[in-house]
Specification:
This protein is α+β, with helices and mostly antiparallel strands and 162 residues long. It has two domains: 1-29; 31-154, Nuclear Transport Factor 2, Chain: A (Roll). 38% of the residues lie in helices and 38% in strands. It has four helices and six strands, in the order αααββαββββ. It has helices at 2-27, 33-52, 55-60, 79-88, and strands at 62-69, 76-77, 91-105, 108-120, 126-139, 145-154. Strands 2-1-6-5-4-3 form a six-stranded mixed beta sheet. β5 (126-139) and β6 (145-154) form a beta hairpin. The longest helix has 26 residues, at 2-27. It is globular and about 55 Å long. The relative contact order is 0.15.
């Protein structure tokens, strides 16, 4: 008799868990075309702010607790550090992204894709680069989507050690 009770208990608990999970997913807000449009506007703002070196605009595209993982650098945590990183970057003369996927659920979304940039170094030389990125977005209490985690890397090999 004991094995039957164990099997019945397992089935009952499994059904309850699946029922709760189904109910939770039905009540969570879905990811809408309007969310996708708003996230693309945040991406466009990031690009424009980078090209214009506009730290005030850049600040509107990130969360207060943003975490950035720039290629070949230590992670950058927090909005103030992220804005300082933008201000310290060389001048971007071109910056394009190709989003391969953008999706989300509720107040969290992600994207990934490739980027191409042209950067003018302090000595005047312009360097072109391409790479990949992945981003997690968070929808704030104000309804605006902002970059919360951003990771990118170059497809170019790292420079050899001196």
């Amino acid at each position: 008799m004991q094995p039957r009770r164990t099997v019945f208990t397992i089935l009952l608990v499994s059904a309850a868990i699946m029922g709760c999970a189904a109910g939770a997913s039905e009540t969570a807000p879905s990811f809408t075309p309007e969310d996708s449009t708003a996230i693309r506007a945040s991406i466009d703002g990031w690009i424009k702010a980078t090209l214009d070196r506009d730290t005030a605009l850049f600040r509107t595209t990130i969360t207060d607790d943003v975490l950035m993982y720039p290629g070949n650098q230590a992670p950058v945590r927090g909005a103030d550090a992220a804005v300082a990183t933008l201000a310290a970057n060389p001048t971007f003369t071109s910056f394009k992204v190709d989003v391969h996927e953008l999706d989300g659920h509720g107040d969290v979304a992600y994207d990934h894709g490739i980027f191409t940039v042209d950067v003018r170094l302090p000595d005047g030389i312009v360097v072109s680069d391409t790479g990949s990125f992945a981003t997690k977005f968070r929808k704030g209490a104000d309804g605006k989507w902002a970059h919360q985690w951003v990771m990118w890397h170059s497809n170019r090999p790292a420079a050899p050690a001196p």
